[in-house]
Design a protein that fits this description.
Blueprint lengths: L1 H7 L10 H11 L2 H10 L1 H7 L5 H10 L2
C-alpha cells in the first residue's frame, strides 16, 4: 500500500506526489488506523492533501479521525 510507504518515509518530500493517491487508497480500504498515524507523523502535509480529495472522501476523514 502507498500509505505504508509514506509511514516509513523519513521526509515528506521524498514521497510528496504519492500523498493524495495514498490517502484515497487508505480510505477505500478502510485503513483508518493508518490514516491516524500518517496525520500524526506529517500533520501539515496531511491537512494540505485533503483539499485535493473529493467532498465525500473529506467527510469520511473528518468523521473517522475525530
Amino acid at each position: 500500500m502507498l500509505i505504508d510507504e509514506l509511514l516509513q518515509a523519513e521526509s515528506w518530500g521524498i514521497v510528496q506526489e504519492k500523498w493524495v493517491p495514498a490517502i484515497k487508497e487508505a480510505i477505500s480500504m478502510g485503513e483508518v488506523e493508518k490514516l491516524i498515524k500518517l496525520r500524526a507523523k506529517f500533520p501539515y502535509s496531511f491537512e494540505n492533501s485533503l483539499k485535493h480529495l473529493k467532498k465525500a472522501e473529506r467527510e469520511i476523514i473528518r468523521n473517522s479521525l475525530r
